[in-house]
Amino acid sequence: MTDDGGLLVHFSGKEDFAGWWENWSAADRHAFLRIARTLHEAGADWYHVNINRQIRCGRKKRGAIDATETILAISNLKPTAWVRQGGDRTELGLPQNSAVALGVLADALEAAPTAFRRFANGTAYWPDELAADTTQLIESQTPRDSGPFYWFVGASFGRREDQVERFLREGIWEISTPTDAEAAQVRSMQPGERIAIKAAFVQKHNLPFDSRGNSVSVMRMKARGVITANPGDGERVQVEWDQTFSARDWYFYTYRSTIWQVSAGHDMADRLIAFTFNDQPQDLDWFRNSTGWAVQFGDNADVTLKRFWIEKTIVNGREDRLSGAHSLGQALWSPQRSKDGKNIYANMLEVRPGDIVFHLVDNHAIAGVSVVETAADQSFVGLAGSDWADQPGYRITLIDYQQLEPPLSREAFLEAEPFATELKELAESGQKGLFYNSRRSLNQGAYLTEATPTLRSILNRAYVELAGCNLPYIDEQQVVLEEGGDEAAAYTLDDALRELFLSREDAEDILLLWRAKRNIILQGPPGVGKSFAAHRLAYALMAVEARERVGFVQFHQSYSYEDFVEGFRPAEHGFELKPGKFVEFCRKAEADPTHTYVFVIDEINRGNLSKILGELMLLIEPDKRDPKWAMPLASGKVPFHVPPNVYIMGLMNTADRSLAVVDYALRRRFAFVSLMPNLSSSRFDEHLEALGVGADVRNTLRTRVGELNDEIIGDTINLGPGFAIGHSFFCAAPSDGESDAAWYRRVVRTELVPLLQEYWFDAPDKAERWKVRLLAVW
Question: What's the rounded Cα separation, in Å, for the pair 93 and 104?
């Protein structure tokens, strides 16, 4: 066994190591020697000190400049260590993403030698052999450095049609027009090795476990057999297929490329092999709780929603992006800072396992999508040969890369309508961190940006237009119209009734009618609490008090189509077409289709409705809430439709003599509900009592204002039910130091009497009589 001096001799001559060693504590020195011995005995030795003066160790293969696995790094006098790029940290008992101290790593390596030794497959080289080693060409290696392999291959022969039936009938498996790498893999297939035909896809529903609403990667095994011959043409092999095999679905640990070469010796690979070729069941609970999936599917999974990201990357001409562990769909990697020191890569630290990444390749097209497996490794160092070689970086491991066929070209969303205009409006709305700008050109340096719900919706609709299907992992489901919402902020009908003076029956009827018609108008005399009730009923409809999902405008005689739908607005260089408040609100709702949105229009009958609404007179109809009914607005540029999750509520004052009769066409599209004063409601009485109003004043108020309303309602020639006095005049509490009687008289004198004088402007004696009656001392 090599003694401590024999181990140290390999490091003491390296730059700065002697200085670091002298400054370490005895405990750190001892831990370092324990790690060094474990690595040495496993064949994974120290090999490199980079320009950042960082010692790195790991497994190294001929022809590789960097380590295949980096086990540990030490820099700047700090005895800090970590395991990264390979190796199942959970098997070593280590935290998934954070660095660990030398002593912790030493304990882990010594406690799990079997788990660690698989990192060291292959030959390790000492630092002084590095120069000679890098002169070796990759081609000098034989393509098979271990085996036998198990092969999981595609079913479509490079076409869209499934070829499994033909493969089984002809006793072959083949691939059409393979790439050089694929042809090399096919030529390396050996007689006697096992082969299975797979089809990979994503599934969200009808799973054999609780996916917590997440999509799951699935690989359907369609056939299995044994390779019997290989003609060496790089396109086909002969196979003896198992004709009794029935298709089986395998979850989580999947691969989407046409050829997947799997070798035994890794826990997940061993389980896949046993499932496919030995008819063993898949231990779904083990996979759900394994690293990479536990965050979404594990017993202690966080149910927070996954985020979506767009990687804007150059692949053409970059070897690291074309193949290997850092290639497109296998990893995200970036420096930690730009060359001018700016923190433009901070989003890398926001990415979490289970997030989805869309890959915008070579500034041309969104060409693929991946799932995030690990959070950012902050110990990563820029790859040799890149513009960021040896610089501190971030690296995120990806899984389940899926190539888009066809890709979503930038022309299909940045130039094609209506998506181009919608993206322009999104950029002009103040949305930060987009990968493009208001001129619809790509932002320079925006390597990783978040795809917000609105942006995802636009891109997805562009892809549906192009390919006839949704983008992967974007589930545009039919909106759920029943009550249901976020449990943490739930808002029930009972919550609404605690604040409203409505009976349960009346409130239930309003919600039922609103759900059926989608458009409703609350009409009533002044003071019945229409605006207050609108928001409470909206929350009850949504089943959550989500203020951000309630829009509100007030119509008036100067309100226009340009304000509500769209119109030209002054801009820096002339005028630009801008969406109105309702169109903006609808696009926000369309990007969040699984939630209900409510748009409230106060004083709806004060505006010129046919002028303000324009085409919306048709589009708001409940049976027209579909993209197939989309139509160009007045500009003739962008088709628009009202999404089905938008509910409209108008509020109308029935006592305003200046208002014109509501358009009959509008009446056909809205359900009308009348709110009347509830002075006799027990809830109103309880409310007054809570304000400190005594029983005598409450009885007087109820009696006298009730009698007044009887006369107003009975005056069908001049007034009627639409002019009754509402309860909300009396909902505010008495002022500090004000008695309940003084409060009552103040409300009557300053609010009710002026209203009565307006009602009976041609009968002032009647208004005066009621003033005296209401203010009489009791």
Answer: 10
How many Å apart are CA 46 and CA 133, to the nearest integer?
14
- Report whether pLDDT(174) > 60: yes
Query: Could you tell me if 677 and 728 are in contact, meaning their C-beta atoms sit under 8 angstroms apart?
Result: no
* 555: its two tokens: 């119509």
The position carrying tokens 């990759």 is 138
Burial class (CB in 10 A: 0-12, 13-18, 19+), 385: exposed
For residue 524, give both structure tokens.
Answer: 């009533």
> Tokens for 199?
């089809």
**pLDDT band for position 330 (cuts 50, 70, 90):** very high
Residue range 495-547, pLDDT digits in tens: 788 778 788 888 888 888 898 889 999 888 877 788 888 989 999 898 888 88
Beta bridge partners of 227: 239
**Residue written as token pair 């280590």:** 94
More confident residue, 210 or 116: 210
Q: How far apart are CA 213 and CA 223, in angstroms?
A: 30
Q: How far apart are CA 448 and CA 435, in angstroms?
A: 8
461: its two tokens: 């609709």
* Sheet strand arrangement including 54-59: 46-49, 54-59, 69-75
Alpha carbon distance 667, 520 (integer Å): 10
pLDDT reading at 640 higher than 50:
yes
Instruction: Say if strands 54-59 and 46-49 run parallel, antiparallel, or are unpaired.
Output: antiparallel
Q: CA 220 → CA 153, 247, 276, 356, distances in Å?
A: 11, 7, 10, 22
CA distance 493 to 511: 9
Q: What pLDDT band is residue 132 in, cutting at 50, 70 and 90?
A: very low
The residue assigned the tokens 């050089």 is 180
686 alpha carbon, distance to own chain's centre: 45
Q: What are the tokens at 179?
A: 């790439």
234: pLDDT strictly greater than 50: yes
Q: What is the pLDDT of residue 169?
A: 93
Q: How many helices (H) and strands (E) does the chain have?
A: 28, 27
| Average pLDDT of the residues in 152-175 | 83
Instruction: Report the mean per-residue pLDDT for the chain.
Output: 79
Q: What is the DSSP letter of 469?
A: S
Secondary element (H or E) of residue 5:
helix 4-12
Q: Which of 549, 429, 532, 548 lies closest to 479, judged by CA?
A: 549
Q: Is the pTM for the entire model greater than 0.85?
A: no
How is residue 294 written in tokens?
């536990």
Residue 29 CB-half CA count within 13 A: 14
DSSP-derived letter for residue 253 is S
- 593 Cα distance to chain centroid: 12
> Residues 43, 120: contact at Cβ < 8 Å?
yes
With a pLDDT cut of 90, the percent of the chain lying above it is 21
Residues near 540 by beta carbon (within 8 Å), at least 6 away in sequence: 483, 491, 492, 493, 495, 496, 507, 511
Residue 304 pLDDT: 56
Q: Name the pLDDT band for 204 (thresholds 50, 70, 90).
A: low
**DSSP assignment of 736-764, as one string?**
TT--HHHHHHHHIIIIIHHHHHHHTTT-H
Give the whole-angstrom CA distance, residue 270 versus residue 262. Answer: 9
